[in-house]
Automatic annotation (TrEMBL):
It comes from Saccharopolyspora erythraea. SUPFAM superfamilies: MFS general substrate transporter. Its main location: membrane. It comes from the Bacteria. This is MFS transporter. The chain crosses the membrane at residues 25-42, 62-83, 95-116, 122-142, 163-183, 189-210, 268-287, 307-331, 343-360, 366-387, 399-419, 431-453. Keywords: Cell membrane, Membrane, Transmembrane, Transmembrane helix. The keyword Membrane applies. InterPro entries: MFS, MFS_dom, MFS_Na/Anion_cotransporter, MFS_trans_sf, Sugar_P_transporter. Pfam families: MFS_1. It is a multi-pass membrane protein.
Length: 461
């Protein structure tokens, strides 16, 4: 039976028959989390576009701006494990709706800072706190994405699915950087945060009204449900936790101390953590200091930066999609899961190290070309979420995703601060570029430490 057959599942009344090709519901789910993730990254990267104007308006120093850039990640890291526990307990639908609404309010609130005369230290503190809250509220988002992908996609499609939502970070820059640059140029930096707030409210309503688990979603056909289930999708991951016979065992499994101890003693997961940290170091350079580098280091105008920053982002987006599709294509051609996930990762992160070459030239067009290549490679090699969905034990999918995201986003604390101090001490971005490039090599160490990629199974206590 085709995925496109229109019928009902889970005991629901059959839907009317339709003619023509029907888009599988899992692809619509993926489109929705892609759009939400793009907004997620637009929110967290908004200061990279507005940072120069905000710095001039409120009087921040480079070090203060570096700390503000890092504030998000301090809270984002701390919030990962509690966020994962909430997801394992309450499911992605409810948790995602709540956090999307909360992070939207915090983003919009930044527009109010400094409307009345405010001492610099007070303004720094207020924005720092708001960015901390943004980090807390966004912390479950990517683990929720991974949880949705684990439930809605068979293993052979999961590389593509995770690549699509992960590549939203590049699409966000490609789409929103020019828009935010133009809005800042025309109306001022405050209106960027108002715009993002309005978009967040709309998406929170759409998510809450339309999203459900695969087995209970009214649009899912029996054929599509069979495709997902037979292919290894955990369709009951967010099913109601009842005591009836149809309640899946993985939902009744407990995330206890014994399981957590096993997770933190598993070498493969530590390989994922190290690799994700390295990948995120490049990400956070791009969404924090890169636009500032173009303004202060290369002399571009703010309006030019919005469009120039979109070029590496578009190539990062293309690389992210290419990595996922390349990985799944290798699986279809009979390569092992380990080879299918690692080969694109190694190639991509090798290319990402080319960012160091920017320190060897004064040509702005050549620098943009190198950045474009580096971020294509970074996108190609960003398969950490696919690997996590492949190896996480069923009773702790969100917990493992959250711990991976926590370790990975320590880079969001370290990278902006190190670059801030480096730029202030040297008056140049050259050392900072070498620092960022070194993380491409670190990611290869993590990939080697993973060993064979397969789902971890823990016996129930």
């Amino acid at each position: 039976m085709s995925d496109n057959t229109t019928a009902s599942s889970g005991g629901q009344t059959a839907a009317p028959a339709t003619t023509g090709r029907r888009v599988p519901t899992r692809y619509l789910v993926l489109a929705l989390i892609f759009i939400i993730t793009a907004l997620n990254y637009a929110d967290r990267s908004s200061l990279s576009i507005t940072g120069t104007s905000l710095q001039e308006d409120l009087g921040f120093s480079s070090v203060q701006l570096g700390y503000i850039f890092s504030a998000f990640s301090w809270a984002y890291v701390v919030g990962q494990i509690p966020g994962g526990i909430l997801l394992d307990r309450f499911g992605a639908r409810r948790v995602y709706a709540l956090i999307l609404g909360l992070w939207t309010l915090v983003t919009a609130a930044i527009s109010l800072v400094g409307l009345i005369t405010t001492p610099v230290l007070v303004a720094v503190t207020v924005i720092f706190v708001l960015r901390l809250l943004l980090g807390v509220f966004e912390s479950p988002a990517f683990p929720a994405n991974a949880r949705v992908a684990t439930a809605w996609f068979p293993t052979a499609e999961r590389g593509r699915a995770t690549a699509v939502f992960n590549s939203a970070q590049y699409f966000a820059t490609a789409l929103f950087a020019p828009v935010m640059g133009w809005v800042t140029h025309q109306f001022g930096w405050r209106w960027v945060f108002v715009l993002l707030g309005v978009l967040g409210v709309v998406l929170a309503v759409v998510w809450l009204r339309w999203m459900d688990s695969p087995r209970h979603h009214p649009r899912v056909t029996p054929a599509e449900l069979e495709t997902i289930t037979a292919g290894g999708g955990l369709v009951d991951l967010d099913a109601p936790k009842t005591g009836t016979s149809d309640a899946p065992k993985l939902q009744r499994a407990r995330l206890d101390r014994r399981t957590i101890a096993k997770i933190f003693s598993t070498r493969a997961l530590w390989g994922v953590y190290v690799s994700q940290y390295a990948v995120n170091a490049l990400t956070y350079f791009f969404i924090t200091w890169f636009p500032v580098y173009l303004v202060q280091g290369r002399g571009l105008s703010l309006l030019e930066v919005g469009f120039v920053a979109a070029l590496p982002a578009l190539c990062g987006f293309a690389g992210g999609l290419a990595g996922g599709f390349f990985s799944d294509a290798m699986l279809r051609r009979g390569y092992s899961l380990t080879a299918a996930r690692k080969v694109p990762s190694v190639i991509g992160m090798g290319l990402a190290t080319s960012i160091a070459l920017c320190s060897l030239t004064d040509s702005s067009p050549l620098i943009i070309a190198i950045m474009t290549l580096a971020f294509f490679g970074k996108g190609l090699g960003s398969l950490g979420w696919a690997i996590t969905t492949d190896i996480a034990p069923p009773q702790a999918t969100s917990f493992v995703g959250s711990t991976m995201n926590a370790f990975g986003n320590v880079a969001g604390i370290v990278t902006p601060i190190v670059i801030g101090y480096t730029v202030q001490a040297t008056g140049s971005f050259n050392t900072a570029l070498w620092f960022v490039a070194a993380h491409g090599l670190l990611s290869l160490v993590g990939l080697a430490a993973m060993g064979t990629i397969r789902r971890i199974q823990f016996d129930e206590p």
